[in-house]
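Researcher: Please predict.
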Amino acid sequence: MISRSHEGDGLSLRMRSRLEAYFRFAEHQTTWRTEILAGFTTFITMAYIIFVNPAILSQTGMPLAAVTVSTCLCAAIGSILMGLLANYPLALAPGMGLNVYFTYTVVKGMDIPWQTALGAVFLSGILFLVLTLGGVRQRLVGAIPHQLHAAVAGGIGLFIAFIGLVNAGIIVRSPATVVALGDLHRPATLLAIFGVLLIAILQAYRVKAAMLLGVLGTLVLGILLHQVKYQPSSFNPLAIGSTALHLDIRGALHLNAFEIIFVFLFVDLFDNIGTLVAVAEQAGLIGEDHTIPRLNRIFLADATSTVVGALAGTSTVTSYIESAAGVAAGGRSGVTSITTGVLFLAAIFVAPIAGAIPGFATAPALILVGALMLKGSSSIEWNEPRVAIPAFLTVITIPLSYSIATGLSFGLISFAALELATGGFRRQHWMLYLLAVLFLVRFISMRSL
């Protein structure tokens, strides 16, 4: 009995050692505890998608319960696939912005059945796979000047912080000045401010789980003050049968929906690139030669997730910038995204409970993640106009346009224009200029998201 016990312990240790080697724990100087806590942190900051995505897509006539299940399932599959295949702390889920385009522009605006719109999403996913296997997407990332990497990360940091400030009620819309200071006397806003202070204090003491503890601490205080509203409701995971495999690919082809497919392809492609560069930069995962390791695997996981999403019954699946919260909590490997994926899988059965996490509890994490993502801005050559101007345009337009792709567009177009104007054409890869032209075409011809 003792020998068998020792043999079992030995197998367990060998398996653990192999997993740690596969996920490169030693290289990233991380641990199981850190990675799992980081996965929890990422999940908590993006759990809102479990209810926001179905609320938007259900306006097309898609059954709410079915979209809720497909949202959780696709987030789970995409995140786990990203962790296993690419070993990156990137979580995936149906993309915000693209679900709005799917609902209001394609289905409602063009009077296209949601089944046909899903067919268009499926075709865009297949194009993702073709471009990935052909190495096109990898070359596109390589064409982005490394000088803009920190600018993309900083712009997305401001974007995340802005979202957090709005969710907290600290910043509100204003018809006179676009935005204004909110009512700081609201209980939810005061709780969010408490959360910011709590996380900041924990970070000052170098507590690795500061983000997660801050969110949970704010949530508990909100419960004690009766600011968390939760209404139990019945939920059937088998409801996904109402949308799964209901896509109409033939209808999308007959529709000649080139513009629709192009938008799904284009926005996801460059939102994904922006998110990837930002998270990889923050996590220190970009190589010394400014390349991103295992890039083909990252894009393969992303493209496959979009295809699965269309088959399950949801709009385009993409990488989530909330992954930066997990990175800020110490996540460096695929175990972080796998943990997030497993939690999304569990959320299929407890979706109503997951929806009880209010915006004021997650907002503090978003605000301070944004602050952390600005640290790389010091590496930008602010004394060199050819770099500083495109970097500034990238940083400022991402949050103000509410679009990572748009901010990246401004940065690349201005960078390419300045290179041409100053005789530096040969300094950059030819694909940079192709990208600049494509972005110009987007601004000229595409509908606004």
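Model: The longest strand covers residues 171-174.
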